[in-house]
Amino acid sequence: MIRYFCPQCWTEVGSGDQQCPRCGADLTEDRDYFDKLVLALESPDYTTARRAAYLLGVAGDPRAVPYLVRQLGKEDPYLAAEAVQALGRIGSREALSIVQQARQHRFAVVRRAAAAVLSEPGGREPG
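^ thats the sequence. predicted structure below, dont judge the formating
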């Protein structure tokens, strides 16, 4: 059975609901794929959030950088590590600078992800 969730507050909603009963969000609003991935970063389901970070990296859109950076402060070290890898895939100067800083992150898994990104060809901070 397919379950539907509000993209704003992650309350389970009915498949035909037009408005979230909890937060009032418009469930009929058509969002583009990028916006849906950004919203999915806040999912309480850790696999959904991690998958969204991965897909934002694959897309390579520099608009994702601030949203991925926000994940570095979360309590899920694996989400933060996925965000670092996504920043490495984006590869912009800003993204790689953040990966460079992540070598000092409080979680070892994030530090290892940053080191792996920076050891790849083209992964060193430019300039």
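The two ends are 52 Å apart (CA to CA).
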